[in-house]
Amino acid sequence: MVMESFLVTYIDELFKLFKDVFIFFLLGLFISALIQEFISTRRLLKYFGGNDFGSILKATAAGLFVSVCSCGAIPIAATLRQRGASTASALTFLLAAPWGGLLHVFLISKFIGAGNAAILVAFSLFAAFIVGLLLAKLENKNLIESGIPKKHKKGEKVVCVECADVENMRLKHEKEKLRTRLLYCVPNNMWQISKDVGKYIILGLLLAAILKTLIPPYIVSNYLGNDKLLSVLIAVPVSAVLELASEGLAVLGGQLYQLGASLGVVFVIMMVGVATDFTELSMIWGKFGKRCAIAYLLTATTVAILLAWAINLVF
User: Fold this and answer.
1) Is 126 helix (H, G, I), strand (E, B) or coil?
2) pLDDT tens across 74-98, in order?
3) How far apart are the first and last CA of the chain?
4) How far is Cα 311 from Cα 46, in angstroms, rounded to an integer?
């Protein structure tokens, strides 16, 4: 009976997770397919191929203006990396993207007010930028797997064979009518990208559903009632087991704030909740490399804790 009850609850939670993330993941696939179909690889690398201050800043800004949640950002980040973007740039985009979603901002504003929401968005983008700079340092020293292609003697970047195939296909499609490209080529790109990334998404959802089944929600909200550093530290493992999309984290964080949690706790719930998402980490582990996944997790969590503490001290 206990096992049967667990399975029923698990399947229900798995279905809820799938329902929550599907539309946003579909949006991310669509944007990735548009990038693959209409944007030149070399033009893409012009903005995301580097590993310097300017490239990280551009990746942060792109995350702000591409309105997708954390689930939707996953296939886009994977596409950027596959097309030759640096690891640091792609992961900076991945961390910054959920905070540019209008739905996300509207949801959190409802609970904590527009002023506090603006503070969280500003700090989150700053966090993504700092994490990007740290990852760039690690990538330049070959301490994590690099996404930057090797260079010719003249300094021109080489596009990988797979990226070159995609680029050649894009050039062939340019001869087609816009309607054909939108109705046929873009959906085909979506299918190819989903086959490439989908297995990591499924793995993440299966693991997330287990956590949601075993961890009662009331435990999360009982220990976050003060504005000391300890509450921020407690919020870190809580965030790690929540496994919600950024919109779900916005609602939960807002509710916790109304129950008396500090603004820093809300920040760390939302920031670490995205950074420790099993779906996201499994994709990074599989598509970027295990050292990338570990470095991303540690740097994003550390920066989030320090900035959450700063938020509590200042605001």
Assistant:
1) helix
2) 777 887 887 778 889 989 988 887 7
3) 50
4) 35
Token pair 């990226």 is found at 163
Are 167 and 159 spatial neighbours (Cβ–Cβ below 8 Å)? Answer: yes
Q: Is 282 left (phi over 0), alpha (psi -120 to 50) or beta?
A: alpha
pLDDT of residue 162: 45
pLDDT bin (cut points 50, 70, 90) of residue 234 is confident
- The CA distance from 312 to 315, in Å, is 5
pLDDT exceeds cutoff 50 at 314: yes
Amino acid identity of residue 277, one-letter, is D
Query: Partners of 151 in the beta sheet?
Result: 157
Give the position of tokens 């964080």. 253
The tokens for 56 are 């990280």
Averaged pLDDT of the chain: 78
* Pairwise pLDDT comparison (96 vs 23), residue with the higher score: 96
Alpha helices in the chain (DSSP H): 2-38, 41-48, 53-65, 70-82, 87-96, 102-112, 114-140, 161-173, 178-180, 186-214, 217-221, 229-242, 246-258, 263-275, 278-287, 290-314
Number of residues that this document lists for the chain = 315
Residue 221 has pLDDT above 70, yes or no: no
